[in-house]
Structure formats: C-alpha cells, structure tokens
Amino acid sequence: MVLKIHGHANAPLVRLVAEVCREKEVPYELVNVEVYKGEHKTPAFKEFQPFGQVPYIDDDGFILYESRAICRYIAKKYASQGTPDLVPREPKAEAIFEQAVSIETSNFYPFALGITAEKIVKKHRGLELNEARLSDLVSNLKAKLDVYEVILGKQAYLAGGSITLADLFHLPYGTIVFEELGYDMLEDRPNVARWWKDITARPSWLAVKANA
Fold first, then answer.
1. Which of 12, 28, 70, 200 is the most buried (most CB within 10 A)?
2. In this structure, how many other beta carbons lie within 10 angstroms of the beta carbon of residue 197?
3. What's the pLDDT tens digit per position in 89-136?
C-alpha cells in the first residue's frame, strides 16, 4: 500500500513530510483533512492523532504522528533510495546530526512558529496582534541566525558537508517567515543566505510548493 499522509496540503508540517517523501523517492497519497473546518479536532481524527494536529501517516497500517518522527522513520526505512544519509548512520556523524536537529528545535522553530502565529494564525482567528511579542520574536530569531552565520561559514550544512533532515526541518516555517511574510533576515548574513538558497531550490521542495 502507498504511504498515506493525513493532513492539509498547505499545512507547514504536512509539506515537510511530503518533501522528505520526495527526497527519498517514496510514493505517497495525501488524504485531505479539512483543518479550517476543524476536522482534525474530531474524535475520528483524534483516534489516530490524539492531540488533534496534522499530519499523521498510515504506512500499511503503521500509524505514526509528530512530523520529525515521521521524517526520521521515512529516512531510515528507505535509506537505500533517494537522497542518501538524511539521517547519518556513523555514530559521530549521527551525533553531529542530532546536535544540528537540536539547533533547529531550540533556536529556530520556536521563533519562526511564534512569528507565524502572530502574523497569520491570530489574523485568521480574529485575534489582536501582540506587537511587543512579535518584536521580541523577530529580534531573537535574528540573534540566532547570527550564530547560524558563524556555523554555516565553516560548513555547507548544519550537520557538515551533506544535507540532512536538520536542514530540511527549516523549510516550512522558514519559507513562511522569509518569503511569505517577507522578513529580510538573509541579506546581511551571506552564509545563511547561501544555505537557504540551496535548500529551497531542491526539486523536492519546489514540487511540494507547486502542489500546495
């Protein structure tokens, strides 16, 4: 059976899972979930994803949720095909990879997600923008990207010389902040700009964006 991704095509983390499937040349079917109608909060959906969030996958009866766990599963199960070593197997390389994943989880995702919530989610829900919080989130993300600039001045990707999931994890919310919302955080950080141009030009990501 083809792997099924349950979610909405425009949902950031659904796009991430689809991107990794394409990197690993794994056919998939997107099972649409009407998140704007609250379908992900229904008992039927929460039977498979108890937090009521998208996505979850059904891989021939194997149910898995949490996008980063899903991406690791796909990368490891299909290690012999598509883009190699999205999760490195050699112990030291894997440790550096996990370090890079922690960088994204701790130093990028919370701020990019927060900016998205303030600028997009609150507007959709009719809530008032918190300008002070937004300013703090932007300042913090810029400071974190200053450190990225140093790291990426020494190597092509966050975990070394080859692309890994740690880089790809930045795509959904980075695209929202840098491109859709137009925050200019790359011009003064040439190493970050070079890296961002590289990972966003991948055919897998371009295909996911085109099919959103």
1. 70
2. 10
3. 999 999 999 999 999 999 999 999 999 999 999 988 899 999 999 999
Look at residue 140 and tell me whether its pLDDT is greater than 70.
yes
Task: Indicate the pairing of strand 3-7 with strand 28-32.
Answer: parallel
Of 113, 148, 117, 149, nearest to 130 (Cα)?
117
**pLDDT of amino acid 84:** 97
Can you tell me whether residue 63 is helix, strand or coil? strand
Mention every residue, 6+ apart, whose C-beta is less than 8 A from residue 74. Answer: 3, 17, 20, 21, 24, 26
Contact between 167 and 96 under an 8 Å Cβ cutoff? The reply is no
> According to the model, what pLDDT value does residue 192 have?
98
Q: What's the CA gap between 53 and 46, in Å, rounded? A: 8
